Amino acid sequence: MRIRSWLAATLLASALAAPASAETLTMGIKLGPSSMDPHFRYAGETDNTLEHLYWRLIRESPTKGMEPGLAASWRLVDPLTWEFSLRPEAKFSDGSPVTADDVAFSLARVPRIEGSPGSYVIFTRAIAGVDVVDPRTVRIRTREPYPFVPVDMARIFIVPKSLGEGIRTADFNAARAPVFSGPWMLESWRPGEVMELVPNPHWWGERSPWTRVSIRTISNDTARTAALLSGAVQAIDEVSLTDLGRLRTDTRVSVTQIAGSRVMYVAMDMDRDVSPHLRDRAGAPMTTNPLKDVRVRRALSHAINRELLVERVLEGAATPAANLLPDGAPGLSPNLRPVAFDPDRARTLLAEAGYRDGFRLTLHATNDRYPNDDKVAQAIAQMWARIGIQTEVALLPNAAFFPAASRQEFSVMAAQYGTSDISTMYRALVHTYDRAAGLGSANRTRHSSPDADALVRQALTEMDEEKRNALFARASEIALDRDMAIILGYYPSYIFAATGGLSVTPYNDGRFLAHAIRKK
Question: In a 3-state reduction of DSSP, which class is residue 343?
Fold first, then answer.
């Protein structure tokens, strides 16, 4: 009863604060959040959607620049200490101020989350302690020099300490944590269906023109486009590549596109001698894992025609990948190029490794998460078949795929990963899995490049940016070229569409925010 009374009073205050000319916005999204707990799973669809409800100390701009968020400023006090000064005007939705105690509580909560399929602990692993200097000043101490504290603080949502130490993921999902630090409040959530949002009456930042926002999950691409054209929704994300040409020529529709800071990759089980989905030509389980041989991994990479994938399967809405992030990001190697399509070389490598007659494998992939993810997997399977690797494709919905991948149930998997900088990308996706150190959180096949990891560990404590970027570049050359720890495919674009005279400001990490949808 107390929660309902609080919500009713807050909704009334929100209605009174909203401008009379404001309107309702209905958004259609491909993937809805898996939880309302802002610290439960670091994944694009959850992380980006929950930004409506929660904010961080630092925000990322549409092109990944860092901007003040709940923190007005930050500085390096000494090599082991970063200081953040909070905005005096920042308040939670219950009217209480955002304080240093709330920041300390939020950071301490992250490592305690149970059952996370994608932990945020990668962003708290370097923290040795958090000091509350005063209500508006918090200091984060690290065990060793660590230049990425601001980058990490652009990932952790801030929740109020008043929620209590006992607050659990189930409480967030059941609306038993009704206090928010972002511009919106959660009115209701039906998982897989819809989120209903109303304005935070104590929001200190720029006001949205919307009185309420309805975020509908429409996973089917055709249905999402149909909802846009029928007026059931006013804006959609992840525009289907099949519908892209038609929408671009429709005068009612505004299409915006941005090169994404994510990469499509293939990960391979380099850990186990016996991997569950590898078989010899006769179909018998293999007792020696061919994926542990770099020549086999390189052969699989040479067999992929990336240009053809981009042109035919992705309608040109992607770019072949050479590095972990697209050109322009700091810390990339200028010496890396997309692996050349060379099936003859691939066959030679297989023969050198002792697999002249090939073998069989299963490629696991999603069928509802990325643009044409199912078609990409099928195309790769056909390319591998041409070099003698008979490939079965097993497609799973996103909700089943990643938990299974986290349990190491796959031998080879195709997926995508996106993040803001080379350090996070390497730490999460490429680094050898190390749960205790919070490394390799997205390394679900346990691939490993120890020599590259050693360089990255140096880079994570190097305060000189030029030296740090050089270390990351060299590590990438070793992990991605010499060791072929993962196979890079392409950088997909994010594409959005809107009707009714609206346009979407695109973010290169795929964020689809009500505040970024405006009338032209």
Answer: helix
